[in-house]
Amino acid sequence: MRTLRFLLEKEFKQIFRDKGLLPVIFIMPVIQLLIMPLAANFDVKNINLAVIDHDHSGYSQQLLAKIGSSGYFRITANTASFPEAMKQIESEEADIIIEIPANFEEQLIKEGAGPVYLAADAINGTKAGLGSSYLNTILADFNSEIRMKLLPQQANTGIDIRSSDWFNPYLNYRIYMVPGILVILVTMVCGFVAALNIVREKEVGTIEQINVTPVKKWEFIMGKMIPFWIIGMIDFTIGLLIARLVYGIIPVGNLFLLYGFLSVYLVAMLGFGLLISTYSDTQLQAMFVAFFFIIIFILMSGLFISVDNMPVWGKVIARLSPVTYFIDVMRMIVLKGSGFNDIKIPLLIEIVFAIILNGWAILNYRKTA
Amino acid sequence: MPQQSSDAVILTNITKTYGETTAVKDLSFSVKHGELFGLIGPDGAGKSTIFRILTTLLLADAGVATVDGYDVVKDYREIRKRVGYMPGKFSLYQDLTVEENLHFFATLFGTTVKENYSMIKEIYEQIAPFKTRRAGKLSGGMKQKLALCCALIHRPEVLFLDEPTTGVDAVSRKEFWEMLQRLKQQGITIVVSTPYMDEADLCERIALMQSGSILSIDTPAAIKHAYPDELYAVKSANMHQLLKDIRQYASCYAFGEYLHVSGISENALAGYVKGHTDVIIKKVAPGIEDCFIRLLLKHE
Q1: How confident is the model at residue B5 (pLDDT cuts 50, 70, 90)?
Q2: Among the three residues B178, B201, B224, which one is the final residue of a domain in this structure?
Q3: What is the pLDDT of residues A126-182, one digit of tens each?
Q4: Which of B224, B257, B291 is the last residue of a domain?
Q5: Considering only alpha carbons, which residue of chain B is nearest residue A209?
Q6: Same domain, B172 and B259
Q7: Is the ipTM of this complex over 0.90?
Q8: Which end of chain A has the lower number of beta carbons within 10 A, N or C?
Q9: Closest partner residue to A212 among B57, B89, B94, by Cβ?
């Protein structure tokens, strides 16, 4: 135990003396948590619209006014023809073209229907997709308003669908993203820094000097894991405070449950870092290998894209990553207030990850080459 | 079981290959208790491999080795308690201070600096003024002394020093060897490797190594004594031409400002250098380097 205490003391001394590492561990996550949720926002605002109004009628004016007042669109150009509007798209001054044909009002009154043409620049797929669907909603709304006016007796037929969004009633994207991003930050710090730390001992040659001492394998490994486990806990706590103070996200569920899951998760991720370090000889190698896996973990974790929407092979990869389960559990506990029974299966899976990754790493770590 | 009567280090038919390359070939030798033993040879001779096998960092492909009576494979735990190892590359924690490094390694060996201070006192006193300095900020000679202190802090029975003087200035090298002589008086067995032939004379016994094999193993004096021929140092105004001229008839190589020639009589040599001006020919006693070159030529 005395040896382990000294190993820990040495490790903390080194961490606190490393002027490059400290900001990476403590300041970078804070900055990222402040910036990323603000930037990673799927709400599409300020969609630039090029309008071709061939009708110039009362209805077409009403429609455009309705679109303009929705808050999502900015009418940036009024053009006389489609090719002119297309130029706006090409020069990236407009995202969507809306073309209202001549006789729009006449047709609408006489035949009860009027065509409107929409063309969206699909290079930014999200903007095109969401923009078109917003426009469709506005058009449908406009449609029913007119029907009400023209045919009041038919207005109330059909099914009226009302939905309510639970756990995130205003569909605030940040409430959904912040808990996930917090997981990613803790993952990066533990996965990367722990892997690099051990490989540095190899690179500098200090591991050689340690290996000729009677230090036991488990002492050395614990000496490496405990400091980064503590740092992971601290980082997570800082992140949770930022989520509360800056984004107003107060975990609904039990904090002990959350920290309980985190402590298992950190052991799994540290095992992952340790495993990488046993296969790498230089920090550069370890960096790239860790980077490769962490990028896959993040992209497939359900942080941005729901795992349920992935193809089967995607789901398989997502299920093989410890990150996926924690993001899921994090959202469940923080937003939904899930209890132990809801998370016991992911917790069990995370424990299996921790055992496999650490067991593999320990088997592969040898004091003798 | 350890047998105190047997030698401190025994290697029997040790072989180690890295892929295609054979680092150590069927090597056997032993080091007596309390001996200052030198492994002398150029880079790539296999010196570091031997150290790594003896300090239990590397497993040999074949053969048996014991240190202080313990088998390097079976009893590696015992060996790690008993040996001090100073790798060729400085491998202490550069971001810890002199003092912290020393305390750290003392603890890893389950001892304290205070307990074994007498062991390192003489060496540590030289670096004590810098004890709060980070190890990475020390000069080369200081680093060497600190590394030696850290390797000695647990009173090892056998000390392995892998090229301790490579890259160290001449004054520090001299000091370092003086330290080793004093350590030897305390009864520690020391195995040291060096590529510098002039350091061979400072060892009690040496093994001359090349390409994973031992060319010769004996005391420096005996190795020099075994040199079979007369050795001459030759010098002239045109050294380059002189080397070319003599090479046709005898073994000849540059040695400082002279050429060393062997294998022919003085009269014959005088005949070969007739065309040169300012010729000096003198008989010299062979050094370890001469012996090494001769063994190398014979070996090839």
Answers
A1: low
A2: B224
A3: 778 878 888 888 888 888 787 777 766 655 556 766 777 777 776 677 788 888 889
A4: B224
A5: B91
A6: no
A7: no
A8: N
A9: B57
